[in-house]
């Protein structure tokens, strides 16, 4: 292996919850493996937003959910993931985490990664830089207070997704300097549009089959997504797709 490849490699850890170890569901999809991600190697990922994405193998997916936590829907999403022993990444909206901290803490307790999605969901690229950074920081503070009881000196999970993917060079540079990985997506379910769970299932599966791998974007605030998710996870298993759980660098060794 060349030095170049060594520098670019993203650490891969043993799977956190394989199908074989899923209580009560031996046919579960499970979580295939855990991938450590850091801003030095992959500062920005997701081809819907950036030129490159995570180094996933064929038929590997990272499942992500935005805008929660939200009463009713987030708990159903968590129930579906737990039933299949699948771990995902939730990009929390600060005002929702502050209003519903018990849901954020449940997601953490069940092994999911909790990233950040601003405080109030503005289009940050349209704001003056100090105001945009203030909303990002307020969101991180609200998320961490909800999850841990207080904010840390730097984010426990340095993952961020821009609302509406509305970034600019100045904000991207600031986050990179802080060691925060910015997540875009490779595939999305368009679940912000009105559709039935069955329509959403057909749409997202067709897009995943076309993409072959990647970061998948849902919203755990959407009732149609919460209702669709159990069938979606079963269908991923049937079609031979595998789930990768992303965590910050060293989290797999230090926090489990």
The total beta strand count reads 11
**Tally of domains:** 1
**CA-CA gap between termini:** 30 Å
Helix and strand element order = HEEEEHEHHEHEHEEHEHEH
Q: Over the alpha carbons, how many angstroms does the gyration radius reach?
A: 17 Å
Seen as an oligomer or otherwise, the chain set is single chain
Strand content: 15-25%
Main β-sheet description: 8 strands, mixed
Shape: globular
Continuous helix count? 9
What's the architecture, going by CATH?
Answer: Alpha-Beta Barrel
CATH topology: TIM Barrel
In short:
By secondary structure, this protein is of the alpha/beta class. It is built from nine helices and eleven strands. It is globular and about 50 Å long.
Describe this structure in words.
By secondary structure, this protein is α/β, with parallel strands linked by helices. It has a single domain, classed as Glycoside hydrolase/deacetylase (TIM Barrel, Alpha-Beta Barrel), CATH 3.20.20.370. The chain is 38% helix and 17% strand. The protein contains nine helices and eleven strands. The strands form two sheets. Strands 1, 2, 4, 5, 6, 9, 10 and 11 form an eight-stranded mixed sheet that branches. Strands 3-8-7 form a three-stranded parallel sheet. Helix 2 (73-83) links the parallel strand 4 (60-66) and strand 5. The two termini are 30 Å apart. The model is unreliable at 1-15 and 252-256 (pLDDT under 50).
Give the key terms:
single chain, 256 residues, alpha/beta, TIM Barrel, eight-stranded mixed β-sheet, three-stranded parallel β-sheet, 11 strands, globular
